[in-house]
Amino acid sequence: KWLFEIIVFPLMKLLFDTCVLYPTVMRTALMGACRVMGWTPLWSDRILEEWAHSARKLGPLGEVQARAEIALLRTQWPKSCVTYSQGLEARLYLPDAADRHVLAAAIAGNADKIVTLNNKDFPKQTLWDEGVDRIDPDRLMFDATQTHPTAMRQIAEHIVADAQNMSDAEWTKRALFKKARLP
Fold it and tell me: Distance (Å, rounded) from C-alpha 102 to C-alpha 108?
């Protein structure tokens, strides 16, 4: 069985777009899946900076909290930040030019897939031409759960417990993950 899992779910390098790193529940679940599956998460300084910038919408402490979470992520995954040349980014085309840096980071990091919710701005053919694919975070979580259900269930239970400790709400796994766009 173990050999079969490696063939079906090879060790992948995954470039995480800002939109899947910024929501805490989604990021925590995805990083847990990376640990369980042996996948390598990747991002760039610019992606992390977009996360910090987006968190300003939460108020004065939003960016401070985001920067602390980014520092923890960098500590947990010290080899995950990739760099790329501006020339690489400049030669790329995507429907939204503001997303070219994500593809440039994926190419520079030799990523197998870009994990994003933003499918329309990352056309598969364009990505394939660069040797990259994209995947929805829910699909990635489904694959990890199919392969390692017990470990992924434990990760989900820890996330729910953390959510309940940080809020007054009584969360169920289903409700929390649906809210996090990981149904």
Answer: 10
Query: Which band of pLDDT confidence, cut at 50, 70 and 90, is reported for residue 39?
Result: very high
Cα distance between residue 173 and residue 22, in whole Å: 19
Q: How does pLDDT run across 60-106, given as a tens digit for each residue?
A: 798 999 999 999 999 999 999 999 999 999 999 999 999 999 999 99
Q: How far apart are CA 135 and CA 84, in angstroms?
A: 22
pTM across the whole model: 0.89
Calpha distance 135→16 (Å, rounded): 10
Rounded alpha-carbon distances, angstroms, from residue 79 to 52, 83, 107: 20, 11, 16
Instruction: Identify whether the C-beta of residue 81 lies closer than 8 Å to the C-beta of residue 45.
Output: yes
Report, in this order, helix, strand and coil percent for the chain, each rounded to 5: 65, 10, 25
